[in-house]
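Ticket #4471: structure output looks truncated?

Reporter: J.K.
Steps to reproduce: submitted the chain below (147 residues) through the standard prediction queue, then opened the result file.
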Amino acid sequence: MESRIWPRRFASGLSGVWAGGLLAIGFIAAPAAFAMLPSAQAGAVVGRMFSQEAHATLGIAVAMFLLLRSTGRAGEPVFSVDLMLALGALFCTVAGYFAIQPMIPAARVGQGAVSFGALHAISMSFYGAKTVMVMALAWRLTRPRAS
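Returned output as attached by the reporter:
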């Protein structure tokens, strides 16, 4: 029984740090950059932050997958709600950053079928959904587990 407690506690702490990082970037760092810098410079700074966050999310999501899989009990389903939240956050990162973001520079200069504003809104929606999923995961992992 003890061997399943530490991965859950570590996953709980990791998900809290993950959620805090997402909130800090989305609600503090990005708006501050646009408030203090010219638009082009702010875009470069924020783009770098989101790039680092996306790559960190790939690693964190894999770690969460491994941690959550190791906490399973005999007879429990393979894919728990917690695991699906972590995989959902991973999907949002892949779709929002690695699929949508590469299209934005062309849309900014008027190329492509979708406008810059639409791509930016889609990307922000994926980031928002990821943040909500990670916050829900952190909340779920901090609850006492039924025996």
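Triage note (M.O.): checked the attachment and the full token line is present. The two ends are 11 Å apart (CA to CA).
Status: closed, working as intended.
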